[in-house]
Amino acid sequence: MPGHWTGSVVLALFASGCLGIAVREAQRRAWIAAVRSGFGALGFACVAVANEGLGFARHAATLFFGISIAAALWHSRRTRA
Question: Is the CB of residue 68 less than 8 Å from the CB of residue 36?
Answer without folding.
Answer: yes
